[in-house]
Specification:
7-stranded antiparallel sheet; 114 residues; 7 strands; 0% helix; mainly beta
């Protein structure tokens, strides 16, 4: 089951989504999980966009302290149609014992669409 919505408030577009899965087909037993997203996109001007994103994921509602989160700040530059440059930072938060779930990263991406 999933619910999503969008809203435009001036130059900022908001996107929200929550998904709930009740998986009864696993051999080890049932599993319930929840995922959510909240995103704000600010169109600074034509071709320039700034995006803040918060994502939450609970892979098993019956297990305490296994939730994961990811937060992003991304600048997107689209100089011409079908070409986009993205520069951003991400912060990951998860269980303390897993270093991959608890890190910060920066990235620079070039996307070409056809």
């Amino acid at each position: 089951m999933g619910v999503f919505a969008g809203l435009k408030t001036g130059p900022v577009s908001w996107l929200g989504e929550v998904d709930y899965v009740d998986d009864k087909g696993l051999s080890g037993g049932d599993r319930k999980l929840v995922a959510g997203l909240l995103e704000g996109n600010w169109r600074i001007r034509q071709g320039h966009n700034f995006k803040l994103t918060a994502e939450e994921f609970d892979p098993d509602r019956d297990v305490d302290n296994d939730a994961q989160a990811r937060y992003s700040a991304v600048y997107e530059y689209t100089p011409i149609q079908y070409l986009q440059l993205r520069l951003g930072v991400r912060y990951y938060s998860g269980i303390p014992q897993n270093d991959l779930q608890n890190r910060r990263t920066g990235f620079l991406e070039l996307h070409g669409f056809y």
